[in-house]
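Thread: Newbie trying to understand structure tokens

Hi all, I'm a second-year student working on a class project, and my supervisor (Dr. K.) asked me to get a predicted structure for one chain before our next meeting. I've only ever worked with sequences, so writing a 3D structure as a token string is new to me. If someone could post the tokens and maybe explain what I'm looking at, I'd be very grateful. Here's the chain:
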Amino acid sequence: MKKKLLPAILLVASLAFALVGCSNPTGATKPVDDGKAQFKSEIKFYGSTTLAPVLSQLSQLSQLSTNFNEHYGTWDKVDSQFEKKDIAIYVSGAGSSAGVKSVIDGVSDFGMASRKVSADEKAKIEGYQEFKLGMDALTISVNPNNNLTKLKDSLTSDEIKKIFSGEFKTWHDVDPSLPATDIVVVTRDIGGGAHEVFQKAIMGDSQIRADVIQAPSMGALVTKIMENENAIGYASYGMVNQNKGKLAPFKVDGIEPSAENILSGTYKISRPLIILKKGTLLPQEKAFMDYVVSNEGIDVIEKLGFVPNK
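---
Reply by user tm_fold:
Sure, no problem. This is what the structure looks like when written as tokens:
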């Protein structure tokens, strides 16, 4: 498609994030209905706080925010088939489960999720479509100044479970050579998509310790770890790459959280980054999808530290 078919200005909701669309695992979007009667100038994306800043950065790096709006202004300047209406794209992060629910309830045009969408959830979305942007993983990370990094580069699933459940309360419990300093555990909100992935992959039937710090976003989780030498949390692979040297991720059961291991599923805490949609795409929605499927969109996702869907 022509490069002018690109995402546009972000009109901020609550998180000051910019828009883009998403990629389709098949490399092409489904047919769209034609006709200006269905034209909408506003498109709403809602959900994963991991995906929301990724979309914002993708827009900025491609110079698609205010510059795009100043250049085109209205939809008819993007494509002559579109109506002359102001471009308005909203992207808000509230968690993967909230993103899925927003599509089920019909309050957003697209949902963002950094976990698999369950069969039960899909059954509630008529004409369900899923567009895979790439892959991420939850790394078990600490502050680089944490003394445990000098002793080992890998934690077992059982050790991680004991840390996050509270069975290990101090770093001395993890390794006897370390002082009995309290472990500070940081997670996403317990009801969110990231925690659901972690619960299934590591915790099983065990519960997270009661005094865990529940961060409102993946960015906030990462910040807590960078600020506290005694903190540990499941930091997004993409966020670790965006903060080189500020986080120290461990291998899990001897498996490194690398792009290759994430794609193959060898690293056990991997997760998809997807956009979901109810029903048929409108023409302007397809324009967003086609942009992100393009080589330019994929390259930007890779530069941001995630594993793109190619």
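A couple of things are worth pointing out once you decode it. The chain has two domains: 36-136+272-308, 137-270. Residues 1-29, 31-36, 60-68 have pLDDT under 50 and may be disordered. Feel free to ask follow-ups in this thread.
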